Every structure is written in C-alpha cells, then in structure tokens.
Amino acid sequence: MKSALISSFVAILLLTGCQEKTEEEKTTSSNVEKTQKEVSNSNDELVNKIKDASTNISNKVGEASKQIGEIIEKTSKEVGEDASKVTSDIVKKSDEITKQVKKEVEDKTQKIEKSIDDIMKSSSSNQGQQLFLKCAGCHGQNGEIKALGKSEVIQGWDKQKTIDVLNGYKNDTYGKALKGVMKSQVLSLNETEIEALAEYISTL
Asked: Does residue 182 form part of some domain?
C-alpha cells in the first residue's frame, strides 16, 4: 500500500512537471515567435530605410550630376568666350605689328632706294664731269660760252634736251655750222656716257 502511494505520488509529480514544462515551452515558443516577428518587422523597416536612403542618394547624385553639367557648360562657354577674345586680341595685335613692320620696311626701302639714287647720281655726275672736260674747252667750265662763237649756250639745258641734241649730232639729225665738229666728239660716246654727260650738264 505504501509502495502504491509512492508510485502514485511520483506519477503525479512527473505529470505536473511535464505540464509545467509544456507551459514553459509554450511561453518560450510564443516569445520566440514574437521575437521573430519583431526581427522580421525590424528587417522590413531596415530594408525600407535602405531603399529610401538609396532613392535619396540616387536623387542627390542625379541633382549633383545636373549641377556639375551646368557648371561644365557654363565654364566651357566662358572659356570659349575668353578664347575668342584672346584670339581676337592676338589677330588685332598681329595686324598692328604687320602694319608697323610693313611701314618700317617701306621707309627703309625708300631710304635704300634714295641712297642708291644718290650714289648713282654721284657716280653718273663724276663720270659726266670727267666727260665734260673735253667740252669745257669750247663751252666753258660751266657751259656758259657759245662754242667757237656760233653754238647755243648749253648752261641751263635739261637732261633730256642734252641727250636729244647729242644723239642728233651722232646720227646726223641735228646741228648746223658745228655739226661736223660735234659729230666727231660724240661718235665715241655710248648711251650710258651720253646720259651721264647730259645729267652733269643739267646741273650747270
């Protein structure tokens, strides 16, 4: 009898313990489910936050890209305008320099031409002066005398008139009483010498 009571008591304890354990397990299970839901909800919130953040970042990147594009366009335009202005200034200065150099070259060319003319005149004058020594015996040192009392005074004649007269003597188309004398004087003269002599006589 005593043995049967102990067995019954143990059985009751076991059953009671199992029931308590089962309640505990239910509570734990319920807590786990609750935690899982909370985690799931938390995960959903986190995913939504990430999506929102990603969308926000994308929008900001798009806006920044647009602003950068506008800045680049504006800067490019300004650079283009500056480059155009610089090019225009360079062209303008280049034109000014070209005109200045051209003027300097023209001035120097004129000076050189004048120097050459002066040298040629001096050379021609010297040659003409040498050639006139033959003429001075009859026409006087400055061409102020009528040769042999019959010719014209040649002082004051211009260059072309003297050339025409000397060539006329040379080819028998000019001259009167002194034609023969003058022809013998000019026959040996070439064209350059006649011009040099006429140039010198025009200075008398």
From this structure: yes
Q: Kindly calculate the radius of gyration of the chain based on its CA atoms and give it in whole angstroms.
A: 64
Report the alpha-carbon distance of residue 150 to residue 139 in Å, rounded. 11
Give pTM, 2 decimals.
Answer: 0.41
User: What share of the chain in percent tops pLDDT 70?
Assistant: 71
Q: Evaluate whether residue 110 is within a structural domain.
A: no
Choose among 170, 174, 173: nearest CA to 186: 170
- Determine the average pLDDT of the residues in 153-182: 90
Q: SS3 breakdown of the chain: % helix, strand, coil, rounded to 5? A: 85, 0, 15
Q: How far apart are CA 134 and CA 97, in angstroms?
A: 56
Q: To 10 degrees, what angle do helices 159-170 and 191-201 make?
A: 140
CA–CA separation, 105 and 4 (whole Å): 144
Question: Residue 139 belongs to what domain range?
Answer: 120-201
How many domains, the chain? 1
Pseudo-torsion of CA 187, 178, 175, 167, nearest 10°? 20
For 184, half-sphere exposure in the C-beta direction (CA atoms, 13 angstrom radius) is 4
User: Does a structural domain hold residue 196?
Assistant: yes
Residue 148 lies in a domain: yes
CATH of the domain at 183: 1.10.760.10
Beta-carbon contacts of residue 156 (< 8 Å; ≥ 6 apart): 143, 204
